[in-house]
Every structure is written in C-alpha cells, then in structure tokens.
Amino acid sequence: MSYSLNSTLLLTILLAIGLFFFLRASSKDRTTIVEISSSQQPIKVLNGLCEWLNLRGWKQTGGDFEQRILTFKGQVVSSKFLAIFLGFLGGFGSCALGLVIIQIYPELGWWPILLGLIGGPLSGIVYFKKSAREEKFELRLINENENDSTFMRLRAHRDELISLENELGEKLQLKSDGSLFKTPI
User: Fold this and answer.
1) At 158, is the pLDDT very low, low, confident or very high (cuts 50, 70, 90)?
2) In angstroms, rounded to a whole number, what is the distance separating the alpha carbons of residues 76 and 132?
3) Of 159, 129, 148, which is closest to residue 30 (Cα–Cα)?
4) Model pTM?
5) What is the pLDDT of residue 180?
6) Does rRNA-binding count among this protein's keywords (predicted)?
7) What is the mean pLDDT of residues 49-69?
8) Residue 84 in this model has a pLDDT that exceeds 90
C-alpha cells in the first residue's frame, strides 16, 4: 500500500469518526442548573419569565406550591435541512471509504461504493430521530419573603438559559454568576 493510499484511508476514517461524534453530540443532554437573582419582586420576575417562556412555545405542565417549583415542557424539533445535509455528507463519506476499499482490495469490484447508500440515509435518520426530544424547564423560587428581591434556581437546556439571560437580563434585572457564558472546555 502506498503512502498516499494510507493517508487517504486515515483521513476518510477520521471523517467518519467526526460524523459519528457530531451525531452523538446532537442528542446529548445539556441540562444546566443556574441560580439567578433580581432586585425586582418575585411576582414581577415570575410573570416576566412565564410570559417569555409561553412566547417561545413552552407549556406549563405543573408545579409544586409547597416547594415553589414551576415546570414547563417544550418539544425540540430536528432541523430537516441539517438532516438532509448530514445525509449527503454521510453518503459522500461512505462512498469515499468505498473508493479507498476498492483501491486496497480491487478484487471486490465496485461493490464497496454502495456503502454510500447505507451511510447517507443512516446518518440523516439517526440525527433526525435523536435530536428531536422533549425538554424540561424548571424554575424554583428560593427566597421566602415575597416583598424582597428574587432568588431562584433554573434548570433547563444551556442554550435556553443563555437566551433567557440575553433577552430578559436587563428588563428583569437578572444577575447570575456568568458561568453560562464560559466555555466548558
């Protein structure tokens, strides 16, 4: 086997590994817990949060009055464009792997190119099925006094919490430790 064939095989395998990890990461749970505070009264902050969540498509599904918890649920929809794009990438990558296999084992004929018919649709379907899921948004009021400032603990998808802090931070005077804007690496 020549050096160029070795490097081509290595790069093709690395592309397949990258696609696998992208598909795995697209369905990974990124639920985060963050504590926020506001100098405004709890009722005003809760009304603002509930209104914002309803506008974004979240539905209130319950809560616990004793523990001061409100629960919202929402459906995450898969991107059809990204599923098709990943299908094409998986198909082309599988065809490339088939071409490398043909170079290594010419006696197989053109059959390894048919890997593209398996890899393409499979990667698109895996992304489409795994990335569509139901998400939960929980908020718990921590402070006991209704007239003072607000302290609450939010548990939701990291991206949703970042959007909340960006869009409602000034309006509701929300403050957190800033950990949402730091990269996890």
Assistant:
1) confident
2) 5
3) 159
4) 0.71
5) 67
6) no
7) 88
8) yes
Of 37, 32, 33, 31, which is closest to residue 142 (Cα–Cα)? 37
C-alpha 111/C-alpha 5 separation (Å) is 19
Q: Is residue 185 over pLDDT 50?
A: no
The class that CATH gives domain 31-76+135-180 is alpha beta
Strand-pair partners of 155: 33, 138
Please check whether residue 94 is in contact with residue 115, taking contact to mean a CB–CB distance below 8 angstroms.
yes
| 178 secondary structure, DSSP code | S
**Dihedral angle sign, alpha carbons of residues 78, 84, 85, 87:** positive
Which of 28, 71, 19 has its CA nearest to residue 158?
28
**Residue 64's pLDDT is what?**
83
105 phi and psi angles, rounded to 5 deg: -120, 80
- For residue 81, pLDDT over 90 is answered with yes
CB 49 within 8 A of CB 156: no
Which residues does residue 23 pair with via DSSP β-bridges, in sequence order?
Answer: none
Do the bridges between strand 150-157 and strand 133-141 make them parallel or antiparallel, or are there none, so unpaired? antiparallel
Question: Could you tell me the sign of the dihedral formed by the alpha carbons of 162, 76, 72, 185, in that order?
Answer: negative
